[in-house]
Write a structure and sequence with these properties.
alpha/beta; Transcription Regulator spoIIAA; five-stranded mixed beta sheet; 4 helices; disordered C terminus
């Protein structure tokens, strides 16, 4: 089982960094989310994209960590973008009132399309 492995982190153009979360995020595994979001934020990225397409479960502990990281990133002048189209997770984010400090995109493609185009890079 890969529950002990860190989530992959990728530096993207446009001042963004992405993490790919997966599996069940509960009290025993939410530290992986916190570590990955912290590492992505520490790169100086202005947008931290958290791809939740492969997340199968998220409990209150993981939701609290997500909200806390979103606030920290927001205070540092950045934005946390959560990629999900899962109706259950969207309801959780609304109930947590996290939408004030994070953005939600239904697909990774849409999250990446919203990245600013850097110098010398042509848009889509």
């Amino acid at each position: 089982m890969d529950d002990d492995k860190a989530f992959p982190i990728a530096q993207l153009s446009g001042g963004a960094c992405m993490i790919a979360a997966s599996g069940e995020l509960d009290a025993s595994s939410a530290w992986r989310l916190q570590d990955a979001l912290g590492a992505a934020s520490a790169t100086g990225a202005s947008r931290v994209i958290a791809d939740f397409a492969a997340v199968t479960y998220l409990d209150a502990d993981a939701l609290a960590i997500l909200a806390s990281c979103a606030v920290q990133i927001h205070r540092a002048g950045g934005t946390l973008v959560v990629v999900t189209d899962d109706p259950w997770l969207l309801r959780l984010l609304d109930a947590e009132h996290s939408r004030d400090v994070l953005e939600v995109e239904p697909t990774l493609r849409e999250a990446i399309e919203r990245l600013p185009v850097g110098p010398g890079v042509e848009g889509p």
